[in-house]
Amino acid sequence: MRTLLLALHADLTGKVPAKIEPNRTDDARIGGDEDEQPLNEMMQAIASSRNRNTDGVLARVMKALGKLRNDPDSFGECEECGDELPYGRLKAVPYVEFCVDCQGKKDKPKGGPTRRKLTDYT
Ligand SMILES: [Zn+2]
User: Fold this and answer.
1) Which of 24, 45, 50, 102 is the most exposed, having the fewest neighbouring CB atoms within 10 Å of its CB?
2) What is the CATH number of the domain that holds 42?
3) CB distance 8 to 95 below 8 Å
4) Distance of CA 100 from the midpoint of ligand 1 (Å)
């Protein structure tokens, strides 16, 4: 997962993430095979996210990288409810912050008349 994020970061910034992970190039030479496929999927994710908000994506990638480094246990958990994120979702969007449920709530804010029990999650 870290490899995905680093590659994503590199692509977004246009730089090799040497400052973050100096050993990255060695990894790519020695054991890169396993990363090939996820990387392809990720490039598609990048391509689609580019159309939206590159800065926002980069910020989330940076955040995810920081989390991965400082608090790896919490990486891959929804920031809202703490549920583990499905691996498929993480693989497609390595910097994802919320599970499908919480993301859905965020995508349609101000819930309208049908108010959900958001307070139950605090
Ligand atoms: Zn959640």
Assistant:
1) 50
2) 1.20.120
3) yes
4) 7
